[in-house]
Specification:
about 450 residues, mainly alpha, 18 helices, disordered C terminus, transmembrane, transmembrane helix, O-antigen polymerase, membrane
């Protein structure tokens, strides 16, 4: 009986990693070929393998308890669809905004949700069997290697098409937002699996941790330079920021884990006002400084002129930040058009296509006060659910109850929201992917109920 269970867990573990691998391959296929989106066979295999894992791994038990964040997300999406149709009467455009792979909030959320459940399944198997835990880490390193090799292939492919005057491919044609978002989402998968392994009772040894961190560093650098090659500042900044999230988590779990073990109920305020938060007033700037200068060092070693990068405005006095700040002048005009319910095409009706503010605050003019309140209530229940994490790694096989992993989820979710607040539209794919990956808390029916 025990042997049969181990064999089933082995198959389940392999299928879980296959599912994540198919998802990553879909993402990276669209990074390599930005002018011809594809890889949909990988996406289909990801969905099929995820469903199989949920069935044979008894993953459906996580759906037994009602989650209020799901309820308000459902209400928000219904409202979003209603306002969209009322504003434009464009069903094709609505399809792209909901289930499309370029800007579909429902598509992105469900991908994050499936990835979250696959990671939870991997955690449970690794928690129950130390041998399978070691196998899990080996499979994770293989997945990291696949990411690094594909990123390197994409970089080499684009480097042959780079312009002579600036560090930018000739055939870009403005199609940079989708691949930049996919790179960030891929990096979130890589860091999430690292955080999951760090949250196990028998965490990674020093050598394993060194290999993992080095590969994540290489992957992040490749994604950052790829983002500059295709002309995306957001791709570079988000990956850089999420590397900081990983290093912050790593230092918390390695140096301040006793402070974390002492708390009974996790709250967001713990990361700000506790001993850990006070220590990070010193440590976080140091981490930022080291990573920033590390990136600059490797850029200079490749003989890339800083003035040829988009992040530095291609050597001009105008940056993308200044361009986006100029759009703030349109906010009041757009919001006043229909302040209560909003209008999804308000910029077309007033100042012209693409003149909306690139910020999460775009909720107000596009979905009005009503839609913004619904979204904020959804976020409230997302963060409330983090309080369900009351146990140390040895206390439960459920990753959603693990205090160590919830620190990562809070850091990850908060960083994505902050970035979206300052420079991305509210239908930004990584935001909704993060809501599925970090924001949903699934508790086994036998475990504690959360608010």
């Amino acid at each position: 009986m025990a042997l049969a269970l181990i064999n089933l867990n082995f198959v389940n573990l392999i299928l879980s990693y296959l599912g994540l691998t198919f998802f990553v391959l879909f993402m990276l296929e669209n990074v390599k070929f930005i002018e011809s989106p594809g890889g949909y066979s990988y996406l289909l295999l990801f969905l099929i393998s995820s469903i199989i894992v949920l069935i044979i791994g008894n993953g459906l038990r996580y759906l037994r308890r009602f989650n209020y964040s799901f309820a308000f997300l459902f209400i928000f999406i219904i409202y979003f669809v209603y306002v969209y149709l009322l504003s434009s009467f464009d069903v094709d455009s609505l399809k792209q905004a909901t289930i499309g792979t370029t800007g579909g909030i429902l598509f992105s959320f469900l991908c994050g949700l499936f990835c979250s459940l696959l990671i939870a399944n991997i955690y449970q198997i690794s928690w129950q069997n130390y041998s399978l835990s070691k196998l899990s880490f080996i499979l994770y390193l293989f997945l990291l290697a696949i990411m690094v090799l594909n990123a390197r292939e994409a970089f080499s492919l684009y480097l042959s098409d780079v312009r002579k005057d600036v560090f930018l491919i000739s055939s870009q044609f403005g199609n940079y937002q989708r691949p930049a978002a996919f790179m960030f989402m891929t990096f979130m998968v890589a860091v999430s699996l690292a955080a999951m392994h760090l949250s196990l009772p028998k965490s990674l040894g020093r050598f394993s941790l060194l290999i993992c961190t080095c590969l994540l560093g290489v992957l992040s650098y490749q994604f950052m330079m790829l983002s500059q090659l295709i002309g995306s500042n957001s791709g570079m900044v988000t990956v850089f920021g999420f590397l900081i999230v990983y290093l912050t988590l790593l230092s918390i779990l390695r140096f301040f884990n006793r402070d974390l073990d002492d708390i009974e109920v996790f709250r967001l305020s713990f990361l700000i006002f506790s001993k850990v938060g006070l220590k990070y007033v010193i440590y976080l700037p140091l981490i930022l400084f080291l990573v920033f200068w590390g990136v600059l060092y490797f850029v200079s070693k490749q003989n890339i002129d800083f003035d040829s990068l988009r992040i530095f405005g291609y050597g001009s006095n105008v940056s993308s930040i200044e361009t986006r700040l100029a759009l703030l002048n349109n906010f009041i005009l757009h919001f006043s058009y229909n302040p209560l319910f909003g209008n999804m095409i308000v910029e077309k009706l007033t100042t012209g296509d693409g003149t909306y503010i690139h910020s999460l605050f775009a909720l107000l003019p596009h979905l009005g006060i009503v839609g913004t309140i619904l979204f904020l209530i959804f976020l409230k229940y997302v963060f409330n659910a983090f309080k369900s994490a009351k146990l140390n790694p040895s206390g439960s096989y459920c990753v959603y109850l693990n205090k160590y992993y919830v620190v990562y989820r809070v850091l990850g979710m908060t960083s994505v929201i902050i970035f979206c607040t300052f420079s991305a539209f509210f239908t930004w794919l990584p935001l909704w992917y993060a809501c599925g990956l970090f924001g949903m808390s699934f508790i086994d029916g036998e475990k504690l109920r959360y608010e």
